[in-house]
C-alpha cells in the first residue's frame, strides 16, 4: 500500500524543551487517521512540521515517498488546514481563491466555483473574508485545501466554529472524498465523537509522544467494556452468575437490568446459561466505552 | 516563481492604500514646486524659486524617501504575511517568497521614484528659475543616493519578513541611516579608528552628497556604492538565512 506520510525520529524542541519526542509514523493511502491529544500534546506542531511551517529539530519526513527537494513538490499533492484559516481580509472568497489559483498554476477555469459549491459557499463568494463567520472561514479554508485536487488532506480542527449541521456536512464531505476519490485524511479535532464517526485509525498523543496507534476495529474491540442484560428474573440470573463465575463483578439496576463488568468473550455462554435455566433474556448487548472515555483512560485525566 | 509573482502582482494591484500613498507623494512633490513657483511670481525678491533649491529639498529628504520605501514594502510584507502558511504548505520555497515579494515591491518603488524624479525635473525646469548644469548636478547626487536607499529598502524587506514590529524597524532605520554617523563621530574622539567608519556612515555620506549638490560639485562617488552595497548584502544574507528557518504561523 502506498505510504502518503512517513516520519522517522522526528523531533521538535523549543528553547531546549522537547515538544515532540521521536515520532515514527506512517499514513497509508486511503486512511482517515485521527490524531488525538490534549492541548499542548503536540498535534499542531506535528502538522506544522508536515506542512513546512516549522523546521524539525531532527528526523526525517517523507511525503509520497519523497524527501528533501522533492518533498516540496510532493506538498503540492496535499491540502493543509492548520489552526485558523488565513486569508486576505479585504478580499472576497472568490478573489482570495483567485490569488491561490494563480499561485498554484491551476488552469481549470471553473475550479473556484466548484470548490465553493462543494463547501457550501457558492452564494457567499462576493462577501469579504472579514465579514465571514467563523464557520464560513473554516469552509473557505477547506475550499482552499481542495483547490488543487489533493491526494491527501491534513486538517487541524477543521470543524471548529461550525454548527451541528455544518459539522455533519463536513463529515459527510470528508467521507465522500475519502470513499469516492481515495483522498487520504490526517485530522485532529477536540470533538472526539466526530472523529469516532469519521476516522478509520486513531493515534493518541501525550506530551509529544505516541501512546497508542490503533485501528477502528481494534479500538472497538478494546473499548467494549460491559455486558448489559435485561431479564425477567434478575435475582435468579445473579444466582446463576455467582455459581458459574465466582469472581464476577456485576450490578443490578432497576427494571431487571444487570450490568456485568468485562466477560465480553463469555457473552454467548452467559446467554445460554440463562436460557437453559429458565431465565428469559429480553436484551443482551455489549456496551463500549466511547472514544472520550477511552482517551481519558489512556492519557489519564483532563479533557482535550 | 512566475506563478508566485503573478499571484503577488494580483494582490498588489488591488492594494488601494498603496496607490493612494503613491499619489499623495507625487502630489506633495507637485505642491512644493507649485508653492515655490507661486511665491517666485508674486514676490520678485523671493530667493527660493529656483530649481536648485527645489531639488535640494528632495535630496535632503532621504528620510522621507526611506519612509515611502517602508510603506511600499508594507504592501506585500505587512499583516498579509499571516497567509504565508498557505503558500509554504503548498511547497513554495521560502527563497521564492523572499525574492518575489522583493522584486515586485522594488519594481513598484523604482517606477514611483522614476515618475517622482521626472515630475521633479519637469516642474523644476518648467516653472522655476533654472541654472545650466542643474540637471546633471541633480542626477549625479541622485545616483549617489540610489545605493543607500536601495540598502534601506532591502533592510526593511528583510525585517518585515522576519515579522519585526514596525516601531523596531523604524528605530533601526533611524539608527543606521539617521544617527550612525553622529554616533561614530562621538566614538571616534576616543578611538580614532572609528573616524574612518564615520566617513562611510550613511548619514555622513548623504550629508556630504547634499553639500556637493548645493556647491554644484556633485560627483558620483564609490563610497556611496561601497556603503550601500555592504548594507544591502548584509540585509540579503540575514534575510535569506533567517527567513529559511523562521516558523511561519
TrEMBL record, chain A:
Keywords: ATP-binding, Nucleotide-binding, Transport. InterPro entries: AAA+_ATPase, ABC_transporter-like_ATP-bd, P-loop_NTPase. One of its GO terms (molecular function) is ATP binding. Residues 5-232 form the ABC transporter domain. Belongs to the ABC transporter superfamily. This is ABC transporter ATP-binding protein. It comes from Sporosarcina quadrami.
Automatic annotation (TrEMBL), chain B:
Keywords: Membrane, Transmembrane, Transmembrane helix. It comes from the Bacteria. The keyword Transmembrane helix applies. The chain crosses the membrane at residues 53-76, 97-123, 135-155, 167-188, 220-241. The keyword Transmembrane helix applies. This is ABC transporter permease. It comes from Sporosarcina quadrami.
